[in-house]
Amino acid sequence: MNMFWTVTVLAATLTVIAASFAAAITADVASRKQLSERTDQAASDLQSRVLTAESLQEGRDWHRDAIRAWTICVVASLSAITFVGVLIILG
């Protein structure tokens, strides 16, 4: 493999890792904030002390987004580690 393509693949992988890590952190923070807001709202509502399925489905599902972003981050990290390992063995 040409040195240019090696550097390009590693740079792209590191970019994906950084972007997915930032997205995962952002989604985690939003998920925790959304959960605390929902529980505060449910606790303050005198007529309904229980979160209903409809109230849980409102808005964006940040928890699911956080899981997807962390999965992408881990897979990209493992791919980069594997790629570097293969390059060390071959080179």
List the helices and strands and how they pair.
Layout: H1 3-44, H2 53-57, H3 62-90
Helix pairs in contact: 1-3
Gyration radius from CA atoms, angstroms: 20 Å
- Strands, total number: 0
Largest pleated sheet: none
Number of separate helices: 3
Shape: elongated
Terminal residue distance: 10 Å
Order of H and E elements: HHH
- Average pLDDT metric: 76
Helix/strand class: mainly alpha
Helix content: over 70%
Strand content: under 5%
Low-confidence stretches: none
Keywords:
91 residues, mainly alpha, 3 helices, 84% helix, 0% strand, elongated, transmembrane, signal, membrane, transmembrane helix
Walk me through the structure.
Helix 1 (3-44) packs antiparallel against helix 3 (62-90). The protein is 84% helix and 0% strand. The chain starts with a helix and ends with a helix. The chain is an all-alpha fold. It has a domain at 56-90. Keywords: Membrane, Signal, Transmembrane, Transmembrane helix. The chain crosses the membrane at residues 69-90. Residues 1-22 form the signal peptide.
Brief account:
This protein has 91 residues and is mainly alpha-helical. 84% of the residues lie in helices and 0% in strands.
